TrEMBL record:
GO CC, alphabetical: plasma membrane
GO molecular function: symporter activity
Keyword hit for Cytoplasm: no
Protein name as annotated: Amino acid transporter transmembrane domain-containing protein
Family assignment from sequence similarity: Belongs to the amino acid/polyamine transporter 2 family. Amino acid/auxin permease (AAAP) (TC 2.A.18.2) subfamily.
Lineage of the organism: Eukaryota, Viridiplantae, Streptophyta, Embryophyta, Tracheophyta
Coiled-coil stretches noted in the UniProt entry, renumbered to this chain: none
Keyword flag Acetylation: no
GO BP annotations, alphabetical order: amino acid transport
Domain named Amino acid transporter transmembrane: residues: 38-473
Gene that this polypeptide is encoded by: LOC110719959
Keywords recorded for this protein, A-Z: Amino-acid transport, Cell membrane, Membrane, Symport, Transmembrane, Transmembrane helix, Transport
Length: 486
């Protein structure tokens, strides 16, 4: 079954064996909006959240805490966790409007903003969301290739010894990752990705647990790095200016680690309508955010304890490709497999937006609108092939892979993405929609508190963006594209 809707959700059509009907022609197999009955549960939503949250961000947390130190690092982590959960509950209530339980469904973040705020804010939301989603696609391509390179280099070191350079280029692995994504991108919509998110969530737990276990083993074996309350030491590890910029960048990296608001509405749209979606989504957010926060604190703190102020950008590669090399290999393979699924979680909303927009503007163009039914062997149903989907999604994957090859800077890129998306998508729009939907009186205590929170988070995002941009510019100056890593 394939569903289509126009931008205003006024004309909903269900195509199944050539039959089409309007929103009133639904039966027990359809939801209240005429779409195929949603089957998502708290478990599948939690898996989607964990897949989206525990991504490449966890790998940089030891480095981030090394910049901030024992006093500020864990505090910033816990603060981001609390803010993310609080604003995600506000966003969950905005899925239906005007009433969060019985109101009209809004299928995307932009539609939620349109229904609750309207005006220019809709365009600003779209710009922030889709720029971030494209950026995440590039960031995940970079991270997956780094992990695959780490596997090849560790095997090389194990075979030939650590005196060998074992130079390896990221480019072939980015091409392999891109080819896999071209195939998976032909999955028609987000509702059919639950199995992929389940696999990805398991992988994220696996590599986070391995990294944590290795860090604990290193600490227990007396391999404590030099740490301090304030992190890297000025005059010893870095200059005063570098200290400031690195702290700003570290905040951006932590913000990126919690970024999933840009796909929350799409995740919520997969849930069954009973119990109410907002209640289930709040429970799933609590499970997802609390689980990932626990992993983040453990990985970040034990990673910092193990490596000290010299913690690497990707703490799994910091174990130096030493024994047990097979365990490091397995962890890096888990990262790559996880990012295969996470890439789809973040790109499906981009695919859907462009395809819906194109069908609205060129409804008579058969290349864009016509689906060709193909029977899947062994009685596994029917796949609806679409030429426009094939060309557009393939082109998107190729472009993001090329951009990743040109700018493969892990920490700088993650920090910039986190800084750019945190305030608008995680804080500003959820807070503004909550004020509007709950009719919070202007200048009341609650109104002032929410506005203050938004302002503080804006300042944090700006300084994080400045730090990451400075790091990115410095990396670009030294970088030579397509060269092998040593």
């Amino acid at each position: 079954m394939v569903t289509h809707n126009d931008d205003n959700n006024n004309n909903l059509y269900i195509e199944q064996g050539g039959h089409a009907g309007n929103v009133h022609d639904f039966d027990k197999n359809l939801d209240d909006d005429g779409r195929a009955k949603r089957t998502g549960t708290m478990m599948t939503a939690s898996a989607h959240i964990i897949t989206a949250v525990i991504g490449s961000g966890v790998l940089s947390l030891a480095w981030a805490i090394a910049q901030l130190g024992w006093a500020i690092g864990p505090t910033v982590l816990i603060s981001f966790s609390f803010i993310t959960y609080m604003t995600s509950t506000m966003l969950a209530d905005a899925y239906r409007s005007p009433d969060p339980v019985t109101g009209k469904r809004n299928y995307t973040y932009m539609e939620v903003v349109r229904a609750n705020l309207g005006g220019r804010k809709v365009q600003l939301c779209g710009l922030a969301q889709y720029v971030n989603l494209v950026g995440v696609s590039i960031g995940y391509t970079i991270t997956a290739s780094i992990s695959m390179v780490a596997v090849k280099r560790s095997n090389c070191f194990h075979k030939y010894g650590h005196h060998v350079k074992c130079s390896t280029s990221n480019t072939p692995f980015m091409i392999i990752f891109g080819c896999i994504q071209i195939l998976l991108s032909q999955i028609p919509n987000f509702h059919e990705l639950s199995w992929l998110s389940m696999v990805a969530a398991i992988m994220s737990f696996a590599y986070s647990s391995i990294g944590l276990a290795l860090s604990i083993a290193k600490v227990a074996g007396g391999g404590l790095g030099r740490t301090s309350l304030t992190g890297v030491t000025v005059g010893v590890d870095v200059t005063a200016a570098d200290k400031v910029w690195r702290c700003f960048q570290a905040i951006g990296n932590i913000a990126f680690a919690y970024a999933y608001s840009n796909v929350l509405i799409e995740i919520q749209d997969t849930l069954k309508s009973s119990p109410p979606e907002n209640k289930i989504m709040k429970k799933a957010s609590l499970v997802g955010v609390s689980t990932t926060s626990l992993f983040y604190i453990l990985c970040g703190c034990f990673g910092y304890a193990a490596f000290g102020n010299k913690a690497p950008g990707n703490f799994l590669t910091g174990f130096g490709f030493y024994e047990p090399f097979w365990l490091i290999d397995f962890a890096n393979v888990c990262i790559a497999v996880h990012l295969v699924g996470a890439y789809q979680v973040f790109t499906q909303p981009v695919f859907s937006f462009v395809e819906t927009w194109s069908k609205k503007h060129w409804p008579e163009n058969k290349f864009i609108t016509r689906d060709h039914p193909i029977e899947i062997p062994l009685g596994n149903g029917i796949y609806y092939f679409n030429w426009f989907r094939l060309v557009w999604r393939t082109s998107y994957v190729i472009v993001t892979a090329i951009l990743a090859m040109l700018f493969p800077f892990f920490n700088d890129f993650l920090g910039l993405l986190g800084a750019l998306s945190f305030w608008p998508l995680t804080v500003f729009f959820p807070v503004e929609m909550h004020i509007s939907q709950a009719k919070v009186p202007k200048y009341s205590t609650k109104w002032v508190a929410l506005k203050t929170l938004s302002l503080v988070c804006l300042i944090v995002s700006l300084i994080a963006a400045a730090g990451s941009l400075q790091g990115l510019i410095g990396s670009v100056k030294k970088y030579k594209p397509f060269e092998a890593q040593e």
